[in-house]
Specification:
- There is one protein chain.
- By secondary structure, the protein is an all-alpha fold.
- It has one domain.
Length: 263
């Protein structure tokens, strides 16, 4: 009988988490290299679609952040999972994340509210610095280069007020992965992510920082490199999740992962 997700998480936490930092980097690259063409092609579609939707007045950015972007990134994880299991996924797998859009939207909304509340002290601290106006200008004009960030006017101590937001953002990083691969509803998925990641929060943060640097490297390389570094970094995130949560262990035990995944 397949182990229930919450019981499985309890077992993993009880056994202790062996986070294989470098293994996940290399494994992510391996998965990416199995079908680089599809990953790069999808990334082009992802960026173009996100940009087009963001241009829609008023609702564009909201629709992109709550619906389109989470569903597409989840589709990338699904594609990576199939490659990880030795399958040959169809390109349409990238869009299977929309089958989970209800729970993904709820997760994005609730996480957005929680993170927004955690940023209130920081908001008060930098209210007169010009950073709020800078952010609103960036949001309202997505197609134009952003103006310089008014760093000199931001009190240095106010950055400490962002620590709770950073902590929570990292803790909830695997929420969508739990929604998709374990068919969990948004709140249990958020709790599963928080409980697992906070057991080794510092190393999870370091891993997120490194994968973020890998994506930034793509921007430095004339921006074109992001078409490769973005999906590669997502594959690394998937590799970490799959190993820590023992995602595919049911396959070897004969129960089949299909109970958790979309066929």
């Amino acid at each position: 009988m397949t182990e229930e997700p919450v019981a499985k998480i309890d077992r993993i936490i009880g056994e202790g988490i062996n986070f294989k930092f470098s293994d996940y980097i290399s494994r992510g690259f391996e998965i990416f290299q199995k079908d680089m063409g599809s990953f790069i092609g999808f990334t082009v579609i992802y960026f173009v679609l996100s940009m087009v939707i963001s241009f829609i007045p008023i609702v564009g950015n909201i629709a992109n952040q709550l619906v389109v972007s989470p569903a597409l990134i989840v589709g990338l994880y699904l594609f990576a999972n199939k490659l990880d299991k030795g399958e040959r996924p169809e390109f349409g797998t990238f869009f299977k994340g929309f089958d989970f859009v209800g729970q993904l939207v709820l997760a994005a909304l609730v996480m957005g509210i929680i993170l927004g509340i955690s940023m209130i002290p920081f908001g008060f601290a930098i209210w007169n610095s010009g950073l709020v106006e800078w952010y609103m200008d960036v949001v309202q004009n997505p197609g134009t280069p952003p103006p310089p960030i008014p760093i000199a006017d931001i009190p240095w101590w106010s950055l400490l007020l962002l620590l709770p937001t950073i902590f929570l953002a990292v803790a909830y990083a695997w929420t969508n992965l739990f929604i998709v691969f374990y068919r969990m509803e948004f709140w249990p998925a958020m709790e599963a992510s928080r409980r697992l990641i906070t057991k080794n929060w510092v190393i999870f943060f370091a891993f997120s920082f490194v994968t973020g640097l890998i994506m930034m490297l793509g921007i430095i390389l004339l921006c074109v490199g992001i078409l490769a570094t973005f999906p590669a970094a997502m594959c690394m995130a998937y590799a970490a999740f799959a190993d820590v949560t023992k995602l595919n262990e049911e396959t070897s035990e004969g129960d089949g992962i299909e109970r958790h995944l979309i066929s």
